[in-house]
Design brief:
The protein contains two helices and 30 strands. Strands 5, 6, 9, 10, 11, 23, 24, 25, 26, 27 and 28 form an eleven-stranded antiparallel beta sheet that branches. Strand 23 (about 300-305) and strand 24 (about 310-315) form a beta hairpin. It starts with a helix and ends with a helix. It is mainly β and about 425 residues long. The radius of gyration is 39 Å and the shape is rod-shaped.
Length: about 425
């Protein structure tokens, strides 16, 4: 019987050695949770057995219990590196035809260049809840989960149709002695630039050149890039006049330029130009107000994730858009989760079904952006456990050897 008792000890020690080795192998795996091997003794008894004379018959592995203590936090500076500080797991939708929902503590996420979804290293999409403009979730529970997506652009393009400038022209300005030429700075007195947009939202520059032509009289030449804008087919410029007090007398209404084709590739567009409120004073040239309609399409320029899990993207056109809210999962018994590899877990009958929520809600931890949770494996502790498991294995092997020697001695006596 002692053979089987020692054999059970050898098997148990071998299981513990494997568990410790697995822990040590994943000391650098983000979000990894170590396991601990638990044992129980084996006793065969009955009501007729004297309890003072019971002899055990070995040991049995009761289970490899996962330890969900928090690992060390590492600062990375990347907004999409996320950590759950406290209880909770990220929910991800695995890639492939047989996509399932998995749960992980590894928050190293990035943007998939093809789908623009926020994904992990395995290509699984981070799940969250859609939100309104104020960041309030518009769905709850498992049925409301959607992959969090980062659109490359924001906004609807619109061609510029109206430009208004309120300028002050220097009353004592000299009159250029040469014909106007935009390439010759001595042929005009001042210039202004205004950003305008074509129908696809691409930007170009409207440049207005101000030429003093006489007492209280100016001519404004307008160009988009190198293309002169015309009125009624003439590109001679817009006459501008002021009264003796320096108030604008002409043009009294916006100047409507002929349709032109933007060099940026948009469709043909027209432009109305207003100088309403402009003056001619003894003070230096200045631009007192400038407005232009139209809109560009913003390019993605940054992303943030706040403590509540709101994912917000900023764009080059000034838009800041709330895109979704990171969902967190919790379980009645996390130690019962089934490990599936790649720092993933799936629900089991022991763990119970996932309960979905969000960061800082009741029962869920907080969310940290720009950090990663490392493995919770302590190398020193595991090495000590490794030595103890090795000694346990050696002791059981020695007991087995001793039982063998005793049996051999008995056989020799009988012989």
């Amino acid at each position: 019987m002692s053979f089987y008792t020692s054999l059970s000890g050898l098997k148990a020690a071998q299981t513990e050695l494997s568990t410790v080795s697995h822990n040590l192998a994943n000391v650098s795996t983000n979000g990894f949770k170590k396991s601990r091997t638990d044992f129980a003794d084996v006793i065969a008894s009955s009501i007729a057995t004297d309890p003072t004379k019971l002899v055990g018959s070995g040991t049995v592995v009761k289970g490899n219990r996962q330890q969900f203590s928090e690992g060390n936090l590492k600062t990375t500076g990347s907004a999409l590196d996320l950590t759950v500080s406290g209880d909770g797991f990220f929910a991800v939708k695995t890639a492939g035809l047989n996509a399932t929902t998995a749960y992980t503590r590894n928050g190293a996420f990035q943007v998939d260049p093809a789908t623009k979804n926020i994904v992990d290293a395995q290509g699984s999409a981070l799940l969250g809840y859609p939100v309104d403009a104020k960041g309030n979730a518009t769905a709850t529970g498992s049925d409301g989960l959607v992959p969090l997506n980062l659109p490359e652009t924001s906004g609807t393009p619109a061609a510029t149709a109206n430009v208004a400038l309120k300028v002050n022209l220097y009353a004592a300005a000299s009159t250029p002695s040469v014909a106007f030429d935009p390439a010759n700075a001595s042929s005009y007195n001042n210039s202004t630039t205004t950003t305008i947009y074509d129908s696809s939202g691409k930007a170009s520059t409207l440049t207005n050149y101000y030429v003093h032509t006489g007492a209280n009289a100016w001519t404004v030449h307008s160009y988009v890039g190198d293309q002169a804008l015309s009125v009624g087919g003439s590109s001679a410029g817009t006459p501008v006049t002021f009264d003796a007090s320096g108030n604008l007398t002409a043009p009294t209404t916006p100047v409507s330029f002929d349709a032109f084709n933007p060099t940026t590739g948009g469709v043909s567009q027209t432009l109305a130009f207003s100088l309403a409120g402009s003056t001619q004073k003894s003070s230096a040239f200045s631009v007192d107000a400038r407005t232009a309609d139209g809109a560009s399409v913003g390019e993605l320029s940054g992303v943030t994730v706040n403590a509540q899990g709101i994912v917000a993207a900023s764009y080059s056109n000034g838009d800041t858009v709330n895109l979704g809210k990171v969902a967190l999962a919790n379980f009645a018994n996390p130690t019962g989760l089934r490990q599936t590899g790649n720092s993933y877990w799936s629900a089991s009958g022991i763990s119970g079904a996932a309960t979905m929520g969000a960061a800082n809600e009741n029962g869920y931890g907080s969310l940290l952006s720009g950090t990663l949770e490392g493995s919770n494996v302590d190398i020193t502790e595991e090495l000590v456990s490794l030595i103890a498991a090795q000694r346990n294995f050696q002791a059981n092997a020695k007991a087995l050897d001793t039982a063998s020697q005793i049996s051999q001695t008995i056989f020799q006596i009988q012989g």
